[in-house]
User: What shape does this take?
Amino acid sequence: MTALRKDLIREIKNSKNRFLSIAILIALAVAFLSGLKATAPDMKNTGDEYLDKQQLMDIQVLSTLGLTKDDIKALGAQDNIERAVGAYCIDAWAGDLVAKAYSITDGMNLLTVTSGRMPESLPYDRSDRDSPPPDPPRPDPLPSVPRFSPSIP
Assistant: This one.
């Protein structure tokens, strides 16, 4: 036996608790890493299946002036595009909260109702088709935004 090997065995015998702690940490790290390596492909496949089932869009084309029906048809006519659908979105501000609302599209970006039910009709009665729908309530004007200047101590 070489001197190095004798010294190694002597160190392990004199500090059994330290050696055991390091061995347990290494075993936990190996188990954690192998779990992550085995789980990652399953998580990717599950997410991909969900996105396909919900028919979520792969790309979103935005325009500051809006897109016409002809623009949407031209996008749909491109190679490798299965379907092009027009939709509306709005950024809504209410107090300290900001929300992005999207219109509901047919056959794309399907919704999943987790509780309750989807609305069956518009919030106003449209039996009288001659009268226009009521105006939506106007939001309060936006308050002025305070200006901040850096304070130098």
Q: What stands out?
A: Residues 10 and 67 are 78 Å apart (CA to CA). The first strand starts at residue 89 and ends at 94. Strands lie at 89-94, 97-102.
